[in-house]
Every structure is written in structure tokens, then in C-alpha cells.
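Pasting as-is:
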Amino acid sequence: MARFVRPAGFVWVPLLFLLVAGACRPAQAPTPTPTPPPTPTAPAQPAPTPIAPTPTPVLTLPGLGAPTPTPAPQATPVGADIVPYAQVYSANPPKRFTEAEVRRGGTFVTDFSGDPPHFDPDLTTSYFMLGAVGPVYSRLLRPVWGAMANPYAPEIVPDLAERWEASSDGLTYTFSLRKDVTWQETPYYDFPEVEGKPFTCDDARFSLERDAKNATAFLVASVETITCLDAYTLRVTLKRRDPGFLPNLASSYAYIIPKALVEKVGDLRQVALGTGPFLLKEYKPKTSITYERNPKYFVTGVPYLDTYRIVIIPEESTQVAAFRAGQIHYTGTNLPSVVRDILRTHPKTVVHRFHIPAASFHIAFRLDKAPWNNADVRRAISMAINREEMNRLVYGGEGQTYNIGVPWPSAFDTLPPPEAFGPYYKYNPQGAKDLLAKAGFGAGLTADYVYYAYGDDRIQQSEMIQQYLAQIGVKISVQRLDYGVWTQQYLGQQWKDLALGFTVPAGGMALGYDWTYELMKCKASKNTWFICDPELDALLEKTVTETDPLKLKQVYRQIWEREVNQVYRAYIAQEVRYSLWHPWVRNTQGWTGYRFDQFTYGGSHVATVWLDDPAKYR
């Protein structure tokens, strides 16, 4: 009988608890007292780059428009030796390199602000879980890795599937699987039924079927049948055309797991054993997660690193201190002031700046309950928020004042101006009071508000929201939750009234479909907010059936306008995300908005990260 050996340091506390697919057809601090600032002018952004048909094995997804440029903290000449897409770097864009320059070995360290709730990739969409298991698993498809990857239009390439074909109607996909892949052999477990055994179609089919029954059901919501034609050929038929199907399979949610292991242990909460580039060596809750290279990884020549480590550091100030001290190699922040401070003392730090085309954080309402099912109450809450002031006080005016969770490039040619967001996104406390009175709450109301501090900005924003709502007679009790309780309440749809919610696209994020269909359709698998609007549902169905690009853009424009008018979610001022790493960290990539492989949303791209000699950069 197999002996289950936990990686050293495992201590478990039970907890309950994120493109057009025509893309791969064969031919194709204390909060300051509010004072209204002047209204900023939203900078124009380039229109998205249209998708060009590309044959298997590379799928190029639609572009999302370039980030809004800001003056670089440090001027850096851009030449042929600099990586492409240098415009996403506001300081020290990295240089290209050759394979001969790669320095193998070493330990790469990054930080998480919390622990994974567990290690089962199907039972939650927690981003700490995704980041923890990403180095261990593979997918059928994956995005291009490394510093040369396009941050605006990700390319999908083979992973466990070495090629794929689609029928002319887009309803049947056939995947030819690699025949040289085995499940990891590790000294940290004892599962002879799995370790070293071949990966086959049965594992792929089992993984997709298991997705359908769990938190990752959105990955296969359009799937009709999953069939193994033989040990290395998988066929999937769809019930309907699905623009997100292939991007979903390449996303950081779509890990392929060993069938025999699940049948042996029941679930994967306490074990991570895959076909990926790294072996899980040790997990010390509230401290660190450590991985070592998989010597039998099926991609030749990688990983370059010997060891990958994630350290758990809840407070952003401590993360920054660890980065300054060289204890971690890579970190991130939403605060421009933090970036400037780091560059003062570490001027060679690489700074990656990305401005996503859709907003994420917002005031989330329980739309299935009164009074939040009343649009006028939601509109009043939205009108109470001074987004211009929030951007100025929290982000130094460098964030996004106005945006919502429907990507603007899907609906517009340029970034919509402030007036396009209409009256309910304009700061108007008296108008908010009038709407509350109209809804029967002229005397005000009370509510609970919960949030998780993903960064210092979320703390400050929650304090400001409390102040703004108090000014219109809405008294909220603010509670900061730890990550485990937060995921249980928010992702589990168990919060009472209000939350500082986030919008994360289903699967990939390269078109409006990923941000809308599985998130906003009535009873959809990732509809956290209980949105259920027949008029909206009719529009969402058109995003699946409409193939004319101009008509599709009009559909998304209507969805965008419906979101703004109904205020299903009251979006607040948004950050521009900064990723920072020491210059001797080579071939990594910055955060590009819940995209395929981030250190938190995935992390398998660490396979091609390497560490140069730090002495060369002093």
C-alpha cells in the first residue's frame, strides 16, 4: 500500500473557500479629509490590434491596447538589444540575451501576501493557490513565456498537447498529446501508482471532467463531450461556439492532474504532483513554499534554476524592505510612491508598468437581496464615491479614475472620456441622497462591508469608502478579513451586504468575452454578484453568436452601457500595476492583468527565469 509522505513542514488547517476563439481555426494610510480635485483628462490609448489568423501550433490573441504612458522615472535608451515592448517598462527595460549567456542554477525568491488555502487546482480559484501549484503542473496549452512575450496579445503554444485542430464550425477540437511526458518522481511523496508513469489522454479527460464539477466549471461550460480516441488523442465537442475555449485551456486555471492520484487520495488539497518544471519540496504555512527543479521535465534544457521559493509576507512595507535587502528578487506594488522610493536607493531596478483595459476592484453588492437589488440604491452608492480624489490621494493621480469591468477596447476605439460614464459615476453626494430618498431610505441605512488587504491601497480605499458613504447617510461597518475567511465569504458568495470585490476574467483575458459571459450571465459559474438581468443576458448571448467584428463591438458597447447604467458593481479608482525585479533576474515578465502566467496567477513561466551574476550590475 502506498505511503503518503507530506512535504516537510506541511501543517494543514481546514479552510473553505480566474479573444476570440476563432483564433485557432485551421485557417485562422489615515485617509485625508476629502477635497474635490480638478477633473483629470483621460489620456487616449491605442485601439486594440486585431487578431490575425495563425496556424497551429501558435495562437495569437487579440491585443488590448497599450498602457497609458507616464514619464519614466529613469530615462533609458531603447535599442536593438532591448527586449520588445519596452514601452511597458518605466525604468530599466531588460536586454535581450542568447542561450549561451544563460547562467544555470541558483535560487529565485518572490513574495506572496498570503498562504494558499490548499493545493487542489479545481476546488478554488484563489490566486494564492494558482501561484502555489503553477510551477508543478502543465496544461494542454500555454502562453509564450519570458521577457520576449507580447504583453498585449499573448500567443498560445503547445504544452501537453503538441498540436490541435478545429472543425470548420468551431465545435470540435482534436488535440494530439505528447507521448514523452511522465508524472513527476519526487522524494517528497510515495505514490508508485503515479510517479514516473506516463501521462495519457485519460488524465486529460479526467481533468476536464473534474473541472466541470468544481470551481473551475467555467473552463468547460460550453463543452458537450470529452472523448479519448486513443491514448494520446483527445477530442472535445462544444454545445455552442465559444470564443474563450482555447484561451481557457491555456489559462492558469486549466491544470492537468493525475487521475490515479485523485482516485487514490480523494482530492489534492495536501499534495501537488504534476508534469511541470518544478517539484514541490516544502510548504511552511505563513512562512514559505519551496520548489526544486524537475530533472525529467519534458521541455529540453529547463528549468534553468535549481530552486524556486515563495516567501509569505503579509505587509507591503515588509515586502519592500525584503526587496531592498536583496532577500527577495521580485515584488510588486500599486503605489507609484513605493516605486520612486525604491529607485532612489536601487536605481537599476527593473520597473514594469501595466495598465489593464478593464477595472477590477469595486464595491460589490449582494444583488439577490434588498436593498442592493434596487438600482437606485446602487447608483446612490456609486455617486457618493469621489473617484478623482481617490486616484489623487491613493495613486498620486497616476491610476485610472474611471473604468469598469467590461474592457473598453471591446466596445470603443479609444479610452472613453469621463462623461461617457454618465451621471452615476460622477461624484454627486446630493444626487446620491436624493436617490436614496426615492428608494425609501431618506433616513439612511446601515450595512456590513468586508475586504481583504491585497495591498496598502485597499486599506486606504476602504477607509475612504466608509467616509464617502457616511456623507450620504450610509453607515458601514468595515471588517478586514484574513485571506482564508475572505475567499470563503467572497468567492463562496457568503458576504452579507457589501464587499471590496474584484473582477477577474474567466480563463484568459484577451477579449470582452472573458470579462462578461461567464461573469455576468444569470447563474454563470463565475457570477459572484448574483447578476441576473434578462436584457443583459440577451446581449451576452450575442457575444457568442455574432461573428461580424463591427457588430460585435456594438454588442459590447451595449453591455458596457448597461453596466454603467445599472451599476451592478460600483467600480472605484484603479491602480496601474508595477512589477519590480533586480536587474540580474533575467527572462521574467511583469504582471499584465490576471493574464496567463504571473507568479500569483500561475507561475510556470519560472521555468525559463535565470539569475545572472549580481556583480555585473553594481
